[in-house]
Amino acid sequence: MEALSGKLILAISGGIDSMVLADRLLQAKADFVLAHCNFHLRGEESDGDEVFVRSYAERNGLTLYVKHFETEAYAKEHRLSIEMAARELRYAWFEELLQQLNYDYIAVAHHADDQLETFFINLLRGAGIKGLKGMQPVNGRIIRPLLNVSRAEIQQYALEHHLQWREDRTNAETQYLRNKIRHELLPVIDQISQEGRSAILKSIRHLASENELYRELVQEKLSQMVVQMDCHAVPQRFAARNDLPVEDPVAKVSEQLLFEWLRDYGFNEDQVRSIYEALNGQPGTCFFSSTHRVTIEREGLELTPICQQNEVPMALSYQQIEKAPGFTIDPSPEVAQLDYDQLTFPLQLRKWQVGDRFHPLGMKGSKLLSDFFVDQKMSTFQKEACQVLTTSDDQIVWVIGRRIDDRFKVTDKTKTILKVQIV
């Protein structure tokens, strides 16, 4: 184990792995405290683990923090497996402790055999390179000092140094996938090749290295194809259609690249496949994750936060100005300059509605707002987010950020100007 610096919080269960790591930290005179999770999953055994860890901390003059969790209730509420629920609970608490104590790292006792087991779990679940690259010795503020140490080496160390630890009886039960891999699959690999475990660990290191390069290339490609749209709710657009000419740089969009864009927004592999197959389909077709919506548009795909779709109306500032010689119109789309004397107050801000009409600046007649949207080639999200400013008798004076109404424009006869601006 390499020398460790900084203040550490050691996640200690009482099992052999964490007890060996605790002893190594003591021998290295590291600056650390202990953190123990009681998940209440094994009745008296769970409480026995806590008693054991408390006794160890007292004997060695170590500060111990203990957290109790109702793990089964949490798993049920969030529709998680017990294993995933426990993981979420403990790492959320570890992060709280880091901030509370102003410590540097959480040290966990994952070792090389854990790495192998995790690799096969992810492989059997159909993971890609991200899932197969394994755990890293340092991942943010989580460190794994024993990651290159085997379970056999940990057991040997514990026996040679006369350490005590708690056995978790569930580790021997093969109904759990991890235990099946540990007790049934890995021994077969040992029979096939004495170097099998080390060879797989070498492959995992290769995958981790290749994953870094892959991520860089993906981000470079996405930066060429994903743009932030000019709307305060910050949707994104992905320039992707499979019916583009071959020489067009976005013509060869892959399903994998699409997945890399959408995975962080809650879309799973099956959803991405459906989106990919619909790239050339009917504009306006929508797909949803728990937090975002993807809409098929003529120019590509539009990603929108669902929470923004019923957005609270924007804030506007109003300024009354006497028109002076040499006055010029502010061209900013976030500003509307109106003839004050043509308005009836109070002005109202609202969402646009089906059937709304206005007189677009420069036109003599009126136009349905929905037709104006088509002329402007506005996306589904931009239409939904559109708001209008109206007079007290509900005449539209400004399609916010798009166009003022010709009837309320500033003319040579205007004496007073009302300047309205998006805040």
Can you tell me about this structure?
By secondary structure, the protein is an alpha+beta fold. It folds into three domains: 7-210, HUPs (Rossmann fold); 229-308; 316-422, Phenylalanyl-tRNA Synthetase, Chain B, domain 3 (3-Layer(bba) Sandwich), CATH 3.50.40. It is 38% helix and 20% strand. The chain is built from 13 helices and 20 strands. The strands form five sheets. A six-stranded mixed beta sheet has the order 3-2-1-4-6-5, with helices on both faces. Helix 2 links the parallel strand 2 (31-38) and strand 3 (64-68). The longest helix is centred in the middle third of the chain and has 30 residues, at 196-225. It is elongated. The model is unreliable at 241-251 (pLDDT under 50).
Task: Give a concise summary.
The chain is built from 13 helices and 20 strands. With 423 residues, it is of the alpha+beta class.
Write the layout of secondary structure elements.
Blueprint: E1 7-11, H1 16-27, E2 31-38, H2 44-60, E3 64-68, H3 71-77, H4 82-101, E4 105-107, H5 112-124, H6 129-132, E5 138-139, E6 142-143, H7 151-160, H8 177-192, H9 196-225, E7 226-228, E8 236-238, H10 255-262, H11 269-277, E9 286-288, E10 292-297, E11 300-305, E12 316-322, E13 335-339, E14 348-351, E15 357-358, E16 367-368, H12 369-375, H13 380-385, E17 387-390, E18 396-399, E19 403-404, E20 416-422
